[in-house]
């Protein structure tokens, strides 16, 4: 966050559950390899929270989070208007400017 805060023109929008109250995408609990058969998928729940911020880009620092959140974006039929990007990609693009 400290690095992203210094990217010109980048607005950081935090979801309600973030920082010390953050919510896992599900991959850390092994949900990347196991499907939920009861209730809502963890990554769909987290993606819905992130989409509620209105951001057009979701930044992730973990490749497993990127996979889980990309799946959630597709499930929400938002792949055309919301991107999931690695923090390093965002920084790379900022340095090119």
List the helices and strands and how they pair.
Elements: H1 42-51, E1 57-60, H2 63-75, E2 83-86, H3 87-96
Parallel strand pairs: 1-2
Helix pairs in contact: 1-2
Structure, explained:
This protein has a two-stranded parallel ribbon. The protein contains 3 helices and 2 strands. Helix 1 crosses helix 2. The protein starts with 41 loop residues before the first helix and ends with a helix. The chain is mostly helical. The longest helix is centred in the last third of the chain and has 13 residues, at 63-75. The model has no long low-confidence stretch (mean pLDDT 89). It has one domain (4-96).
How is this structure best summarized?
This protein has helices at 42-51, 63-75, 87-96, and strands at 57-60, 83-86. It is mainly α.
